[in-house]
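Practice problem 4.
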């Protein structure tokens, strides 16, 4: 858990205008900055960045958040990753990381990381320059239908047919200080069996005579390479090995380049090869990405679903493609949701996406994408494939195959629908499928999906209560204007949304020093009332109000809110006087209530 105090300090040091300005062209407009929203298509700017609130807000699609939220939304990063990137930009270390390593170790790790990043950047530039003077490589790319523009967009390069081609860039391979980062980055191979005359291990380039595809992280940093042979040779694709920067099971080729297109089209297309990604981008499908020579993993799925709610996997229609699709299905199941769409596209065996588009055209391929098989249908196809459903044994086997797949899915509408379809296909009932597959933990409730324990529905705050929440969120110091009597009446009032208001007042009271609106909002977003606060925050971002008028409006709103509980208490005391049960203390309290209600009515 990253301490809230660190988040406050971090967001006090970064300027959201600088953070957003790296990705969005901003122009000054009054107190704020304006630009075209990066999260939806628009022709006139409705995207604002507030330097005073340190928040961004789009009036078109309602996207909003702090610098941390922007990096999460724009780059698809997790919360910790976004915090780490911001921290690194201002020279801070996230406490979780700082506590694990001693200062000397931490400095060593940072130095190694910088050395590896530098090596990858310099190698990328070297390979790109080599491509310009490699006619055979240029001819190969042209034969695949690629233009110079698309090659430049993806940073394609060429590794010369030289065992020590990188030496002019980095220096003598015999120097351990030079060789160390190159070996660790996967650019150089060090042979323990073969040694030079001086006894040093033989060192040579990993990539030779190959088209080079830089692999970028979601931040745009080159973390690895894929090298493709241009003629005969094995392996056809050679990837960087696992390094401190690069893990094949977690990265996706082309995701950095495809981010904008994914948002524009509303889905991501997952293909099998680097060349497919680049070719499709040129042909009008810039939202394509590829796994890096490995099966689709759970981390891949999580990354994809952070970018979009719709994923289409494209596989060859042969047996190998079906096996790859099955593995992708299994990786997806734990993350399916009723508001997510996952589909599977199987092209004819003689085609890959690139060749299909070139032969059939973009409209035909777009139609294939639209008609791709839904996850539910593919799952049912997988479990029933090869089974004779007219026989009891075949139906039982289909249920057996379905059991681990259904168990890995979260309970919800989609799983319910699949259970019903499987029941129809195997001549059983949904209740029996639940029982056979272990989806109903309580035998007495077989056939009923377990529902979460009912919770009392929290009503949305009224207009007046909502306004108090907005003013408090914008100026947390207003909580100091509530005296003890007001707090007792307001925060215990059953008619108001006292639960949320009490939480916000408490959060305001805990703040010390200058308050950063963005950091305070991030803190509230981690609370049980995050959904309420999100609506409040959106209203705050749409308005500019100075502190002095905010104080006056706050006092008036509180006076009006307190009129209700004061009036109810007065009614109870007046009733006790009528009944003859009131004591002197009650009568004294009643007189005070009358004067207090009149005073507050005048304030309102």
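Answer key:
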């Amino acid at each position: 858990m990253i301490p809230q105090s660190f988040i406050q300090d971090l967001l006090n040091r970064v300027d959201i205008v600088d953070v957003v300005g790296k990705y969005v062209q901003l122009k000054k407009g009054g107190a704020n900055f304006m630009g075209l929203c990066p999260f939806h298509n628009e022709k006139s700017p409705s995207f604002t960045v507030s330097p005073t609130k340190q928040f961004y807000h789009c009036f078109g699609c309602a996207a909003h958040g702090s610098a941390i939220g922007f990096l999460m939304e724009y780059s698809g990063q997790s919360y910790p990753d976004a915090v780490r990137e911001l921290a690194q930009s201002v020279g801070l270390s996230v406490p979780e990381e700082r506590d694990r390593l001693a200062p000397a170790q931490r400095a060593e790790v940072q130095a190694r990381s910088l050395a590896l990043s530098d090596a990858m950047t310099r190698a990328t530039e070297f390979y790109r320059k080599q491509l310009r003077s490699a006619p055979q490589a240029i001819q190969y790319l042209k034969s695949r239908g690629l233009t110079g523009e698309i090659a430049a967009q993806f940073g394609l390069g060429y590794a010369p047919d030289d065992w020590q081609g990188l030496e002019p860039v980095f220096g003598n391979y015999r120097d351990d200080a030079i060789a160390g980062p190159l070996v660790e980055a996967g650019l150089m191979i060090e042979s323990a069996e073969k040694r030079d005359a001086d006894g040093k291990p033989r060192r040579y380039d990993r990539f030779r005579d190959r088209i080079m595809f830089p692999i970028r992280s979601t931040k745009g940093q080159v973390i690895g390479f894929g090298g493709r042979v241009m003629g005969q040779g094995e392996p056809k694709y050679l990837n960087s090995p696992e390094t401190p920067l690069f893990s094949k099971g977690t990265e996706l080729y082309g995701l950095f380049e495809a981010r904008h297109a994914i948002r524009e089209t509303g889905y991501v297309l997952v293909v099998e090869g680097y060349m497919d990604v680049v070719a499709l981008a040129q042909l009008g499908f810039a939202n394509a990405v590829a796994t890096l020579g490995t099966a689709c993993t759970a981390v891949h799925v999580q990354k994809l679903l952070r970018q979009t709610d719709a994923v289409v996997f494209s596989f060859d229609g042969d047996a190998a493609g079906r096996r790859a699709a099955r593995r992708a299905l299994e990786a997806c199941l734990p993350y399916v949701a009723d508001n997510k769409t996952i589909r599977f596209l199987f092209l004819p065996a003689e085609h890959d996406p690139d060749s299909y588009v070139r032969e059939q055209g973009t409209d035909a391929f777009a139609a294939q994408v639209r008609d791709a098989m839904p996850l539910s249908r593919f799952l049912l196809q997988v479990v029933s494939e090869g089974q004779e459903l007219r026989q009891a044994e075949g139906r039982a086997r289909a249920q057996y195959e379905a059991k681990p797949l259904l168990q890995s899915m979260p309970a919800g509408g989609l799983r319910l629908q699949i259970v019903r379809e499987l029941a129809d296909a195997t001549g059983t009932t949904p209740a029996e499928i639940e029982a056979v597959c272990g989806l109903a933990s309580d035998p007495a409730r077989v056939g009923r999906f377990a529902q979460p324990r009912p919770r009392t529905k929290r009503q949305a705050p009224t207009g007046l209560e909502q306004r108090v929440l907005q003013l408090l969120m914008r100026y947390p110091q207003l909580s100091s204007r509530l005296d003890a009597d007001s707090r007792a009446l307001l925060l215990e009032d059953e008619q108001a949304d006292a639960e949320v208001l009490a939480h916000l007042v408490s959060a305001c009271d805990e703040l010390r020093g200058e308050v950063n609106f963005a950091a305070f909002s991030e803190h509230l977003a981690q609370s049980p009332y995050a959904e309420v606060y999100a609506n409040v925050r959106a209203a705050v971002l749409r308005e500019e109000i100075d502190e002095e008028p905010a104080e006056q409006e706050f006092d008036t709103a509180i006076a009006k809110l307190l009129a209700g509980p004061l009036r109810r208490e007065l009614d109870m005391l007046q009733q006790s006087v009528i009944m003859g049960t009131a004591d002197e203390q009650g009568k004294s309290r009643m007189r005070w209530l009358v004067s207090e209600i009149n005073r507050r009515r005048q304030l309102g």
